[in-house]
Every structure is written in C-alpha cells, then in structure tokens.
Design a protein that fits this description.
By secondary structure, this protein is an alpha+beta fold. The chain has two domains: about 5-80, Glutaredoxin; about 90-195, Up-down Bundle (Glutathione S-transferase Yfyf (Class Pi), Chain A, domain 2), CATH 1.20.1050.10. Helix content is about 55%, strand content about 10%. The protein has helices spanning about 10-25, 40-45, 70-80, 90-120, 125-145, 160-175, 185-195, 195-205, and strands at about 5, 30, 55-60, 65. The protein is globular, with a radius of gyration of 17 Å.
C-alpha cells in the first residue's frame, strides 16, 4: 500500500489526521508505534528522528510527511476526495489554517500540559503551569462558544481541517477542564463532532486505551 500511517490510537494529534483519512476513505496501512517497545520505537525513530507521532509515509512518492496540518494538506493535494478539507480559495484556506492553528495552540497544547503534568512522578508536578494552561483553555472556550453560537462547523456549513483539529482537542480538553455546564455552544459543537462518522470511528478504535488517560 502506498500510504503508511505511523500513529497510536490514543494520541489526540493522531486523531486529527485519522479524521482526515476517514473523511475521504483514503486507503492507508496503519502502523501503531509503541514507544515502550524498544524495537518499535527504534524503527520509528529511524524514519523520523524527532519521534513525534503521527507521521505519514508515502512510498509511491518517496515522501515522509510529519505534523498533522501538513499531513492533511498533503492528502488534500495528492489524494483528494469528496470532502475538501482545506479549500481551493486562498482566502478561505488561510482562514481554515488560522482556525486549525487556534485549536492546536490554544486548546490542544494547554490540554496536553494538564494531562502530562498528571502523569509526572509525585512531587514533580507544575501546579502553576497547569493553572496557566487551564486559564488558556477557559479563555479559548469563551471564544469558541461565541463563534459556534450560529455555526454548524468551525468555518460554517462545511467540514474542514479546522474541525479535524477541534474534535480531539475539545474531546480531551473536556476531560481535563470540563465545559459542558458553562459553554453550551462548545458542548453542542463537540456533540456534532462526536456524531460525525469519521470521528466516531476514531473514538471507537481508541476506546480500549482510554483507561490510560488521567482525568
């Protein structure tokens, strides 16, 4: 198979790229990376020394593509499907990228700060950094709640890369800094994302691993 996708089903950033793959039924070979397994980790680091998942390997084009947003844009360019996740209009594409960056930087990253702090050894936590991250999440929730008051998806009526970014970011963020009782439009948006067949499939595949995530 031309496309190989290196990932872990629990990884929130892997969820983002998987949504794009499933939206367009793009054929690919899933290759799960186990960083606790020396052989698996070594094989992946030989491909991508930075050792961050996910990574898309296109054997047909001899290309190694890291980073979720770049993966999604690469798929849109070289393996387009019925759902155009980036847009051919330059101005709209820029807006999609802005929203994609917003969810990655101001929801996804603060959420991961809270999660990783809870995984640290006792006495090695960063309570000040965690509170800063939660403040960022609450600020982002307020902005999203305002935006989603009259929208179906992040950019309006069309499902895009911005929604691929929003789905896992909001799903895991709600576990760390719940928003369902405080931001009804964010909650409704997440419910729509969870009902989307592409993300519903991702969640189902990840379910056996959820017990590993601290809440």
């Amino acid at each position: 198979m031309t496309l190989k996708f290196y990932y872990h089903p629990l990884s929130s950033f892997c969820h983002k790229a998987l949504i794009a793959l499933y939206e367009n039924a793009t054929p690919f070979e899933p290759l799960m990376v186990d960083f606790f397994n020396e052989e698996s980790a070594a094989q992946f680091k030989a491909l991508w020394p930075i050792a961050k998942i996910p990574v898309l390997r296109d054997e047909g084009r001899d290309r190694t593509v890291p980073e979720t947003s770049i993966i999604i844009e690469y798929l849109a360019q070289h393996y387009p499907g019925r759902v155009n996740l980036v847009s051919n209009d330059p101005d709209m594409a820029r807006q999609i990228r802005l929203h994609d960056r917003f969810y990655d930087l101001y929801v996804h990253m603060p959420m991961q700060k809270v999660v990783t702090d809870r995984l640290r050894p006792e006495g090695k936590g960063d309570p000040f950094g965690v509170e800063e991250a939660k403040d960022k999440l609450r600020l982002a929730y307020g902005m999203i709640d305002k935006d989603m008051a009259d929208r179906e998806w992040a950019m309006g009526k069309d499902f895009t890369m911005a929604d691929c970014a929003a789905a896992p970011a909001l799903f895991y963020a709600d576990w760390q800094e719940p928003f369902r009782t405080t931001h009804k439009h964010v909650a409704a948006y997440l419910d729509r994302l969870l009902a989307r067949p592409s993300y519903a499939r991702v969640i189902k595949e990840a379910e056996p691993y959820f017990k590993m995530v601290p809440k």
